What we know:
- With 241 residues, the chain is an alpha+beta fold.
- It is 41% helix and 21% strand.
- The strands form two sheets. Strands 1, 2, 3, 4, 5 and 6 form a six-stranded antiparallel β-sheet that branches. It has a two-stranded antiparallel sheet with strand order 7-8.
- The N and C termini lie far apart (51 Å).
- The structure holds adenosine-5'-triphosphate (ATP) and magnesium ion.
Amino acid sequence: MQEQEKSPLEQIGDELKLLFSGEQEMYGALKALGLVPGNMLFSHISAERGWIRGGGETYALPFSVHMKGENKDGKYAHELKLVFKACTPFPGPVPLLKIFDSWIARRKLLEANGVSTPVLCGAFSALVLEEYLEHHLSDVILQTNDRFSILNELGRSLGVIAKLSFNPPGSIICDLRSRGNDVVFIDFGYDLGDPQLPAQEATAMDILNRTVRDLIIWKISAQEEIDYFRAGFLRSYGRLL
Ligand SMILES: Nc1ncnc2c1ncn2[C@@H]1O[C@H](COP(=O)(O)OP(=O)(O)OP(=O)(O)O)[C@@H](O)[C@H]1O
Ligand SMILES: [Mg+2]
């Protein structure tokens, strides 16, 4: 309840201190993390709101770190967008920190196999500080003039997920984000599904077919577009065989 009464900036300050114990000042914590490079000057932090429920299993606190730099063309401003995410999984017998560790391990597994994830700035006690990804993947796919390559990349990423034998229970692509020209996974919890070892081909084909149906709902339905997605999926799924 008390959290509700704090301003967004006070909430960010509390979390930074929790993550980077020993640093009393927000600036010190950001600097210690390497988030304010030596050639930039910290200006201020801004946030539109405090903690809110991100979805079924998370709370989110997005904010920006504003900095100033100087180069041969003169002074410029730089905004670094970040988000705190708190892990609040569905209640069950597994302790919270164990679930949190498994999310971090799954995230690292995806990264090690070439799936893009947000830059992880810090992780502690069911809390992560990570890169804020500006775009929903759906917006990027609908607006880009390089749709084929993003669809191919989406297929490649999902092929890896399938090959690693994850079995997402619902639509996967609605949770995906983008930096504008890529495909980034942000959810390593329930929505990724539990690995079913050994990998089942039927599950992989189900992921493929379900995603094609989701793409059609997004009005990505031209045969050539679906073919690019499918080719990316089958190539990465097959390559890992
Ligand atoms: N790093 C990020 N940058 C930008 N947006 C994010 C980031 N992480 C999560 N989000 C947004 O918050 C939403 C919820 O995040 P996430 O899927 O991790 O939590 P969840 O509790 O599983 O939510 P849901 O039940 O809606 O899937 C995502 O769909 C995404 O739009
Ligand atoms: Mg989710």
